[in-house]
Design goal:
It is built from twelve helices and eleven strands. By secondary structure, the protein is an alpha/beta fold. It folds into two domains: 3-84, DNA polymerase, domain 1; 91-382, Aldolase class I (TIM Barrel), CATH 3.20.20. It binds S-adenosyl-L-homocysteine and iron/sulfur cluster.
């Protein structure tokens, strides 16, 4: 599949607008930022709120990719705005569909260097009974090097802009036909939940993630409530409280081990922010309550973190935190130094957790056949370091 919609290309010819990359994108700007951009463009102060509202409606309620369809603006203004600003989609490199309905898009970001293709990211849509979750990336690659994670073998290329984070949702809505013109109303939405569980560590791209989520949760736009948005972190302790205060979405913690020795190997960031500090930050997470629990993700690695003692220790560890536990079967990737725990072991582990009062669904791996499952995301912007990682990898600790 290729890039821009045809309408956009035609229009560009007709208006001889500046090349796309030179025009700043309006996608992902918060309302105040959008008003500021329109003010700098020269719209009168008195009109800013109204014009920003009209443009917002075009982008986030109607899915428009150009000013052409924004007929509440005069033709002359539309043409001027078109020449100054961009609102086109990210480039779709490939789109894959799993046998289980999971869809994965490989998207190319604009290049910073002329002639060199831009970096790539992945976005995954997971349909389930009564809900649909979009798994969104926040960085190209990741600076952290969790030893079981495919993305962790890819060096950080760069942070995504707020527009590139929001842009992933727009692409998914296009593909799913989820704009009003596609005949859907808000009751039967296909994308009901967003998880920041794609590539990257969202708390290392804090400002852009915060702004993107402000746009996504705006009630007069994409309208996904913060209760339906989950940010997953490997445990950047100093940013957790800030996330609660400034973003206020649901929190998921990639715990994966119950003692520092094992967690140091799986999530090296643990050496900086050990388990006790992490859990303290969780206890203090603004808004946490039994109705707003923190999700603890726990990837099941054979012989590493999957014993019954581990399960019991997990329950003890989370005792005074309003928590949900998500057991994730390890998704292998080429060269990965771990194996997934046996199904029987996972069930026994889950039993202990369930008996302690957690409805802990074992997350069914989705989209494995298209490498869209958790931790399998990695684009070709990659410097392959899997073999290096393999050598350094954690030894099973039983
Ligand atoms: N960087 C963030 C969010 C992205 S990872 C974080 O680490 O939380 C999303 C989830 O997938 C995390 O819980 C991560 O630990 C998990 N994960 C990574 N690699 C995996 C793999 N190979 N199999 C299963 N889960 C994996
Ligand atoms: Fe980065 Fe998360 Fe993967 Fe760790 S698990 S390397 S933090 S994306």
């Amino acid at each position: 599949m290729t890039t821009l919609d045809i309408a956009h290309e035609k229009r560009e010819d007709a208006l001889a607008a500046a090349p796309r990359a030179l025009r700043p994108s309006l996608v992902g700007l918060t309302r105040p930022q959008l008003m500021e951009a329109l003010g700098a463009f020269g719209l009168p102060e008195k009109q800013l709120r109204m014009r920003a509202g009209q443009i917002w409606n075009g982008i986030y309620n109607r899915g428009l990719t150009s000013f052409e369809g924004m007929t509440t603006l005069s033709k002359e203004l539309r043409q001027k705005l078109e020449a100054a600003f961009d609102m086109s989609r990210l480039e779709i490199v490939t789109e894959q569909k799993s046998v289980d309905g999971t869809r994965k898009w490989l998207l190319r970001l604009p290049s910073a260097v002329p002639g060199v293709p831009g970096p790539e990211i992945e976005t995954v849509y997971i349909p389930e009974e009564g809900r649909g979750t979009l798994c969104v990336s926040s960085q190209v690659g990741c600076t952290l090097t969790c030893t079981f994670c495919h993305t962790g073998t890819q060096k950080l290329v760069r942070n995504l802009t707020a527009g590139e984070i929001v842009g992933q949702i727009l692409i998914a809505r296009d593909a799913l036909g989820e704009w009003p013109d596609g005949g859907r109303n808000s009751e039967d939405r296909l994308i009901t939940n967003i998880v920041l569980m794609g590539m990257g560590e969202p708390l290392y791209n804090f400002d852009n993630v915060r702004d993107a989520l402000e746009v996504v949760s705006d009630g007069e736009g994409l309208s996904l409530s913060k209760r339906r948005i989950t940010l997953s972190t490997s445990g950047v302790v100093p940013m957790i409280e800030k996330a609660g205060a400034e973003i206020g979405c649901m929190l998921a913690i990639s715990l994966h081990a119950v003692n520092d020795e094992t967690r140091n190997k799986l999530v090296p960031l643990n050496k900086k922010y050990p388990i006790e500090e992490l859990l303290e930050a969780c206890r203090n997470y603004p808004g946490v309550s039994n109705a707003r629990r923190i999700t603890f993700e726990y990837v099941m690695l054979k012989g590493v973190n999957d014993s019954l003692e581990d399960a019991k220790a997990l329950v003890r560890l989370l005792k005074h935190i309003p928590a949900k536990i998500n057991l994730i079967p390890f998704n292998p990737w080429p060269g990965s130094p771990y194996e997934c725990s046996d199904w029987e072991t996972i069930e026994k582990f889950a039993d202990v957790v369930n008996r302690a009062g957690y409805a802990s669904p074992v997350r069914t791996p989705r989209g494995r056949d298209i490498m869209a499952a958790c931790g399998q995301l990695k684009s070709d912007t990659v410097k392959k370091r899997a073999s290096e990682r393999f050598r350094e990898a954690a030894q099973p600790t039983g």
